[in-house]
Amino acid sequence: TEAAKESVLAFTGKDEYKFGDITKEADRRAKQTIAKMLGKEEYKFGDISKAAASKAMDAVTSFTGKKDYEFGDVTKTVLRNALSFLEGDKKDEK
Fold it and tell me: CA-to-CA distance for 9 and 7, rounded, in angstroms?
């Protein structure tokens, strides 16, 4: 168990273990990693959701070809593409 104790102290960077030190250190490291992934100095609650929403909106605007999303844009684009596809089939039949 001495090796385990040394491992815990090495992980936490502390000289003495107190209940919750491992959790606190894991939380600190996770937040640091997330902040780095998002290009931020520090993680704040909601950063992951904001980044995911931004990526999703980028995908939607890329798909629709519009700069700003409005309700119904995805449906309109799907229907427009389906119609174009079907009209292409009709041209091939002539």
Answer: 5
CB 9, CB 17: distance < 8 Å: yes
User: DSSP code of 66?
Assistant: -
The predicted structure's pLDDT at residue 43: 93
Instruction: Give the residue from 32, 12, 33 showing the smallest Cα distance to 22.
Output: 12
- Rounded CA-CA distance 4/17 in Å is 11
Distance CA 71, CA 2 (A): 61
pTM over 0.70: no
Q: Which phi-psi region, left, alpha or beta, contains residue 20 (left: φ > 0; alpha: ψ -120 to 50)?
A: left
